[in-house]
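Researcher: Let's try something more involved. This one mixes different molecule types, so please make sure each is placed in the same coordinate frame as the others.
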Amino acid sequence: MVMYLPEEGTLLDLPYKMNHLANNYGYYPQDCKELTCWTQHGLNGRMNSPEAELTSLPVHVSLQDRELWDKFSSIGTEMLITKSGRRMFPSCKVTVTGLNPVVKYVVIMDMVPFDNHKYKWNKDLWEVNGSADPHLPNRFFIHPDSPAPGEKWMQYPISFHKLKLTNNILNSNGLVVLHSMHKYQPRLHIVQSPEPCYPQNPGSYLRFTFPEAAFIAVTAYQNQEITKLKIDNNPFAKGFRDNGLNRKRFRDKESQETKDSDGQAKQDLTPMGQSQKDEDVTVSSSVDSRRTLNSSEVASSVPPNPFISAFTNTSTAGGPSPHQTHTILSLNNRHLNSPREARPSLHSLCAALPVAQSSCVQSSTGDGHLSTLPSQISSPASQTPGTSIIQPQPYFRTPPHPSRQCPDMELPLPMPPKLSRMQLPGSALRNLEMIPVSDYVSPRPLTNILNWIHSRALASGTSGKVLQNPPEPEQYLRGSDRELHPQIYPAVQKYIDQQFPLNSQTEHRSQMDYVSGRPLTEYYCDQQTGK
DNA sequence: TCTTCTTCCACCTTTGAACCGC
DNA sequence: AGCGGTTCAAAGGTGGAAGAAG
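Model: All components are placed in one shared frame. Result:
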């Protein structure tokens, strides 16, 4: 299994994510514009069988609205975060193919730190402003349609437009908590619903990261170019178009200015930062000064077992800074001293895997067929060594996307028909009402999510009947209570117990801040007391 | 003084209920 | 009675601006 690269691209720093223990892994091309990830066809030819493992399927995920994302990323995407939560724009919308149509999956999105830095806006560019704050406990946004059969996920683009970002660590209303002035990237999880008949099977999953959708979380927009782009493209911001001249405030202000001093005042009044625009944007040279995350950093940002990391709900799950994660990674990869040394070639990586588990990033050739890579993997392209300044333009390198070579891959899926509540059949409404809303809206450790899913799977069972009293997800895997309740995923739990033995310091490991090594409760206290 | 954050505002889209005609 | 289309109001999303906080 090999792959072709984008025309201008080399297979630089192919980051990888692998999970030996859970037979699960996923890859993503960190430095390519290609946001499409493939997994290999299962060699056992089970892909069409109902019991086919998720990891054996040729799952393909691609980010929609790529042109829009390109526009934003070329300037330096910023996402507003507010106390009450703010939607992302552009929102993450992905198409997925290659799933087993009849198997149920859960689709989850979270945000992981892009790097180990904190940023500040200095006049017209982003600068590194120290080290990142400890990553907050991960918050997963479960797609409200979860779990649903693969057929449904593949039918329409999966939209996460309702995902909201906040900086309020106390807000648990389904918001993803981020630090302001930190850079994040979205990450997608596709989790196969646990098989009700085999509770020992934790269910496989895949993860995809979208570096092109990376953004800096801000409480107020810094780059006027970003503001302009948002206004121009976000329908909710239409009121700010036409330089905001149609806005009452500006109309009033303008009329007032006219009264005060006609003539000169009018000239100065250029709404929507017109005057600022003139002084805006120092166009940089063609040098890509983006502080790239090399593959080793990415690799080290990926815990040896992402499934576990999600379980432990630590900063690792949220993907703390690559360096910070390395301590956890080293649990299984002590030989990976130097991140760059640690990067195996794609081939060696695949060779190291059992055949049936091999997985590669693929791209598609113009004829729409999967093709094989040249035998040697290109060496990592030279990267600009860690410059501390991010130029506003060009913010990201933008090599031609392979999909442009392969129009088939860009074919947008039809948007789902809009259904009002009135149009839903009664059975569907009853089903919806049976779902404890808080369970899929509220962020929670993936443990609970999966257990909840499992409980629902059990509840529906093979007979399709619904239990009267499905178990509460919270009753599973809660700290020291674990022994009191049956474990849904004993193999995974065993691994956690081995890697993160409980003691007085780590008893609440799911709440640990692995960056500072302190319990997050302490971190919260510090936040409250202003330390 | 400067940077970052919070809050409020007006404008806009989306949503869903009510209404009407067939 | 049921269905489909239209209208309208409420809810909620948006960036700007001013002021607070550190």
